[in-house]
Amino acid sequence: MSRLFVGVRLSVFLHSMKMRLIFLLSCICFASLVSAQSDTVRTVVAKQGDGIYKILRENGYEAKDYYHDFLEINKDKIQQEDQLILGETYILPRKHEIAGPEHVVVIDTVPQVCVKPDSDSLLDSIPPVCILDTTSSPMPQVKMELRIADTIKGTALKGAIFYLIAGHGGPDPGATSYVDGVMISEDEYAYDITLRLARCIEEQSGKVYMIIDDPDDGIRSGKILKIDYDEYCYPGVEISRDHTTRLVERAEAVNKLYYANKTTKYQRVVEIHIDSRNSATRVDAFFYYCHGSTKGKALAERMYNVFRQKYAKFQPNRGYFGSVEERNLLVIRKVIPPAAFMEAGNINNERDRKRLLDPNNRQALANWLCEALKQDYKANQ
Ligand SMILES: [Zn+2]
What we know:
16 strands, alpha/beta, Aminopeptidase, two-stranded antiparallel ribbon, single chain, binds zinc ion
């Protein structure tokens, strides 16, 4: 084998070794650069109108997943109600390694068989009875992304979409009162009742959008629900400090989704608040709908009737003094889908507060509302 050939082979080998070495070195440099990058602390200066959600969103974060990280690392520069200091420098949180799994459940959609009593009996006003038909082969599995429910218990709301608006939130706690010297606020209790309603709807295979949501509060079973200011407006927007803007932004969030879901025939809005009157006044849950909305009126009336029936059944001697009427409220006027609005009671009245402080009562309110939604959906099939 000639010397020349060996020489050429050697130089080719050395050249490729050099190339490989350069490549390796550049990889190492790049890797350390990336980790240096991720290790470098990113900061941002708070501008006029900035809030935590706005800053996180503008810097490419899924705001609701990083809200509390931001609060934690900047806690000495966060003012009351989670407000930022204008011109102050804030540290942006480190990105989470792995995004959490989506809350998805797989359901076997078992077909149903519906039986209707024969026509000439007194019973024909009774709606058909539907039972699961376990004889036929199960239909294809369906993946459902759930906001709060863990299981699917039925299909009574399958194909329906609900936009749930818990009153106030963020910088606005709504009405406040004191229990054993501790301040409680309307928005926390309205949110808990709304989340329980969301669970009930999802358990019946309905689709829920929480228009006002909270990054870390799930369904709470306590009596005193801790006040915080981290609620946000769908899909992760700061709740404005301005009253009218606050209402307009949540109505617009609904309307955007309404158009995005326009192939879905049945879409409804439910807004939940807690009233504030003088402490001597007892207020049973009452309902509003928007002037001219026949479907909103029908929904609100169904809610009123379910409450009336439930009180007659469970507390026959108590009576029920709720009401249902039209009211010109900005959100239910501005949203496109038919809407119903509930005031759950008077936060300042001790007996009414029982309806709010006891988690079982909050659950009962949600169940009754859900009952009315099922009736309304069925009537609109
Ligand atoms: Zn309110």
